[in-house]
């Protein structure tokens, strides 16, 4: 799975908003400078997150951006889907809809299993857990294997 800059920036922006609390706002400039995200790119991402109901914009002198729901109710999967669409696709198709013939037929099962593995992490980690540095044990356990830290 390739995590795009758009998805990574969206998660980082959500973490910054969680860190200030659900009733506080942060300007796009504040988020951008804290995370080193290009402001123009961030504004587009914030718009997508707003359309997905994850953030809200507040007008006025104390305006800016804030979480639209509690950080503990927002998973990484929700954020990634808001800016990228489905978590796993095979040639622009859902894994369960992929069709293969002959010896390649079991490949469909591999793609479905891969999506399930991605969900196991992204649907069970919340923005609140990242902001509070309290990742679930099942996620931390996956990082203890030395192979998890190498690219192949």
Summarize the structure in words.
The chain has 152 residues and is mainly α. It has one domain (5-149): Orthogonal Bundle (Arc Repressor Mutant, subunit A), CATH 1.10.10. Helices cover 49% and strands 5% of the residues. It has seven helices and two strands, in the order αααββαααα. The chain has helices at residues 5-20, 28-35, 39-51, 76-84, 107-122, 127-131, 137-143, and strands spanning 55-58, 64-67. β1 (55-58) and β2 (64-67) form a beta hairpin. α1 (5-20) crosses α4 (76-84) and α2 crosses α3 (39-51). The longest helix has 16 residues, at 5-20.
**Helix-strand string:** HHHEEHHHH
Q: Would you state the CATH class?
A: Mainly Alpha
Radius of gyration: 18 Å
- Strand fraction band? 5-15%
In short:
This is RrF2 family transcriptional regulator. The protein has 152 residues and is mainly α.
